[in-house]
Amino acid sequence: MDWGSLDQRIDEAAGRPALRDCNVLMIYPRFQANNFWNYSETCKLIGAHCPTSPLGLITVAAMLPANWNVRLVNRNSEDVTDEDFAWADMVMTGGMFNQQLDTLRLIKLAHQQGKPVVVGGPDATSSPHIYETADFRVLGEVEDIIARFIAAWNAGERCGSFTAEKFQVDVSKTLAPRFDLLKFDHYMYIGVQYSRGCPFTCEFCDIIELYGRVPRAKTPQQMLTELQALYDLGYRGHVDFVDDNLIGNRKSLRIFLPELIAWQQAHDYPFEFSTEASVNLADDHDLLQLMRKANFFALFVGIESPDPETLVHTRKKQNTRRNLAESIHKFYGAGMYVTAGFIVGFDTEKVSIADAMVELIEEAAIPAAMVGLLCALPNTQLTRRLEKEGRLHADYERWTDETGDQCALSLNFDSLRPERDILLDYRRILERTYNPAAYARRLHELVSKLNRADRPTDLAEGNRLRNVGLLELLSGIFRHVPEAREEFWNVIQNCRQSNPHALRYIVGLMALYVHLGPFSCFVIAEINRRIEALDDAVRPVAAGPAELARALA
Ligand code: SF4
C-alpha cells in the first residue's frame, strides 16, 4: 500500500476528496499495576520508564493519511495532558486484556474532554461489547478496514463499527511502523513484528483465534527496512520480535535469518534480539544456529505444565514426548536464555502439581518462570468449552480489580479440583521458586549452560546500557533486594570466573529479580487473601448470646 493508492481508496469509498487535516491523539493504556511483565523498578535501574513500546498504535499510525497528524502518549511512561486532548480531533486507543480498565478510563476521559474515541486492539476484538461506549470500534487486523474508517470519518460520521475479515491481511504489504513517534529513552526494548499467527492449537490461547493458524510473514526486505529505520533514528540495543511464534513459518524464517545476519554484520551488530517460540525449536539445530548468529539472546517459551496428560488435554502436544528440561538446555547452548510460562489449575491436575513444577523449573534452570493461574481468556476454545459445561463465571472477561494481575486473579471458572487446593499449590510453587536462594541456584546453573562465546560482547555505540556501569547496576539491585545480596554476589563471582561472556545477561536477570521478588510476595499475599475468603465462606458463624437464647427457647 502506498499513500497514493490509500488516499484513492478513501476518496472512492467516501465519494469526495479526503484531504482534511486531522489531529489524532494515540494513547497506549496503562497495564495493570502489579503485573509479571510490568517491571518498572527494573527499568528504572537502567534509566528507562517501562519495558516496551506500543507497536500496534505506531503500526496503525503508518496507515493514516499523510495530512493526519499523530501524537503518541504511552500511559505506562508518561501522563496524557489536557493540552493533548485540546489538540486532538480524535483519540485512538486500545490494548490487551490487562489494559482493559485503563482503556475504559481513557474513553471516559476523552468524552469528558469532548473528543470522539476510536478503540481497537486484541481485547476490543475479543470482547467488543465491553467497549460499547467508544464512538468507533475497529476490530481485528486493521490493514484492510482502515480505509473504510478514514472514509467514514471524512464523510462526517462520528460513530461506527468496522470488523476485519479474519486472517485475511497480507502482512507482506503492511507498512513499516512509525518508529519516529517513539521516545526511545523511555523503553527497555523496542518491539517489531515479523509474523502473525501460530500453527498449534493450545486450548487456552487467544492468539490462534485472533491471528489464525496459518502464520503470515513479512518479507526479509520489509523487516530489514524496519530495522534500518530504527537504526537511522539512532536506536541501538534490544529489539524484541513480538511474534506469536517466531518459528510458525519456518520456511520463510530460514530465508529471512541469513539476510538478518548479513545486515547485523554489515552494521556491526547494533541490535540484540529476543522473541517467543514454541519448544519444538529445540529440535531444529540449524535454525538455532542461525538465530545465534543473528544475535538472539532471549526466548520466551510456553511450557505450561510438567504433566504429560495435562499437556495433551490442553492440546499442547508439541510439549509432549520430549524431555522439556533438555530442550530448554539446547536454547542455552545456542546462546539464548529462556523465560517460560507455567500454568496451574488445569482440569487434569488430579493431585498436587507443585513439586513436579518446581522440579522442572529447577532442572531446566529457568530463572524467570512466569507461573500463573489458569485464566479463561475471552475468545478461546477453553472459554467456549467451559461455557458449554456451565462453569464460566459471569464476569470472566472483565477486570474488576485495579491492582491485580492475571497471575493472582485468574481461575475465572469453576475448577474441577477444589479451588483451595489449586491456590495452595500455586502458593507453594511461588514460595519455592522466588526465594533468593532458589533464584540464585538457577542463575548458577544458567552460568554453566549459557553459551555466549563468540557472540559480540561490546555494546554498540549509542546503546543506553553503555552508560550503566556493572557496579552501579549491582548496587542498585542490592539496594532493592538486600536479602539476595550474598547469593547474587556468589553468582557474579562464579560467572566472572567460569563464563564471563554470560555476565551481562546474568546481571540482567538479577535486575529482573528486583521486580520478580517483591511481585511474587504480592501474589502470595493475594493468594492468602483468596484462601482466607474461601475458608470464611465455609466456617460456621459463632453464635452470640442472643442466638443461643433463641435456640434454647
Ligand atoms: S504455541 Fe503459543 S501461540 Fe501457539 S497456540 Fe500454543 S500458546 Fe498459542
Can you offer a commentary on this structure?
The chain is α/β, with parallel strands linked by helices. Helix content is 43%, strand content 14%. It contains 22 helices and 15 strands. Strands 2-8-11-12-13-14-15 form a seven-stranded parallel beta sheet. The chain has a six-stranded parallel beta sheet with strand order 3-1-4-5-6-7, sandwiched between helices. The protein has a two-stranded antiparallel ribbon with strand order 9-10. Strand 14 (337-344), helix 14 and strand 15 form a beta-alpha-beta unit. The protein starts with a helix and ends with a helix. 46% of the residues are buried. Iron/sulfur cluster (SF4) binds at residues 198, 200, 202, 205, 207-208, 244-245, 278, 302.
Features:
binds iron/sulfur cluster; globular; alpha/beta; 553 residues; 7-stranded parallel β-sheet; 43% helix; 6-stranded parallel β-sheet
Short description:
The chain has 22 helices and 15 strands. It is an alpha/beta fold. The strands form 3 sheets. A 7-stranded parallel β-sheet has the order 2-8-11-12-13-14-15.
